[in-house]
Amino acid sequence: MSEQHKIRVSVDIYGQTYKMVGSETSGHMRLVASMVDDKMREINSHNPSLDSSKLAVLTAVNTVHEYVKLKEQVEQLEEEIKRLKG
After folding, report:
1. What are the backbone dihedrals phi and psi of residue 2, each rounded to the nearest 5 degrees, phi first?
2. What pLDDT band is residue 86 in, cutting at 50, 70 and 90?
3. φ, ψ (nearest 5 deg) of residue 13
4. pLDDT in tens, 20-51
5. For the chain, N or C: smaller number of CB within 10 Å?
């Protein structure tokens, strides 16, 4: 994708402004940023002594964990569909 087709948007995550660049819509990028912000605030509410760096890593670990679990569920559902069609 050429540079002129990239979408640029400023977002706020945990009190910091970030400039995001991507091929998705600005609404999509804002939604992702909002979900990251929400997750960081949720984790911070349970671990208020974490510094921002550790909070960011813990947020990433939790998010990837959720992604892996969802990916496993999708794979199980795909196998079930194949079995039912078979």
Report:
1. -75, 160
2. confident
3. -130, 115
4. 999 999 999 999 999 999 999 999 999 999 99
5. C
Q: Alpha-carbon distance 79 to 84, whole Å?
A: 9
**One-letter identity of residue 4:** Q
The H-or-E segment that residue 75 falls in is helix 52-85
User: Rounded CA gap, 76 and 55, in Å?
Assistant: 32
Residue 59 to residue 65: CA distance in whole angstroms: 10
Give this prediction's pTM: 0.84
Strands (E), the chain: 7-13, 16-22
- Contact present, 21 and 7 (Cβ < 8 Å): yes
CA distance 40 to 5: 30
In angstroms, what CA-CA distances link 45 with 12, 55, 62, 69, 86? 18, 11, 15, 23, 48
